Amino acid sequence: MTNITVHFVSPDGEKTVTAEASDGDNLLTVAQINDQPLEGTCEGQMACSTCHVIVEAADFAKLPEATEMEEDMLDLAAGARRTSRLACQITLTPELDGLTVHIPAESHNMQGI
Ligand code: FES
Predict the structure, then answer these.
(1) With 0-12 CB in 10 A as exposed, 13-18 as middle and 19+ as buried, what is 99?
(2) Nearest to 103 by CA among 27, 20, 42
(3) Deepest in the core among 4, 22, 31, 46, taking most CB within 10 A?
(4) For the chain, what is the domain count?
(5) For the segment 3-62, what is each residue's pLDDT rounded down to a tens digit?
(6) Coil/strand/helix, residue 32
């Protein structure tokens, strides 16, 4: 089994959680296993944007392009940037080893206080 390392950076940029994943793992699932605050309300159906992450620019180029539907959902995501992606649409492969993603600050607002 190939081990793929993923880094999750907290919204304030101060804390990085390093996670181990396997080839074919879904980024949202890996984030949730590692206690990252991504709700993923629709469980990968591209009907919410609560799994929004901001990908490190250097890693963004390695990802397959987002589908039009994903782009549409990202338009609705709070705080979306040029390198934003939906974590549920990212399948980890050995090429993505060392992937760094930032958790958007706005993700906390979705927790329904
Ligand atoms: Fe809803 Fe990713 S979990 S769009």
Answers:
(1) buried
(2) 27
(3) 31
(4) 1
(5) 999 999 999 999 999 999 999 999 999 999 999 999 999 999 999 999 999 999 999 999
(6) helix
Q: Report the number of secondary-structure helices (H) and strands (E) in the chain.
A: 3, 5
Distance 12 CA to ligand 1 centre (A): 23
Asked if residue 113 is part of any domain, the answer here is: no
Residue ID of nearest Cα to ligand 1 atom 3 = 40
d(CA 34, CA 82): 25
Decide whether any atom of ligand 1 lies within 6 Å of the 48 Cβ: yes
CATH code of the domain covering residue 21: 3.10.20.30
Phi, psi dihedral angles at 15 (to 5 degrees): -125, 135
- Quote the ligand 1 centre to 63 CA distance (angstroms): 17
- Expressed in angstroms and rounded, the spacing between residue 17 Cα and the centre of ligand 1 is 21
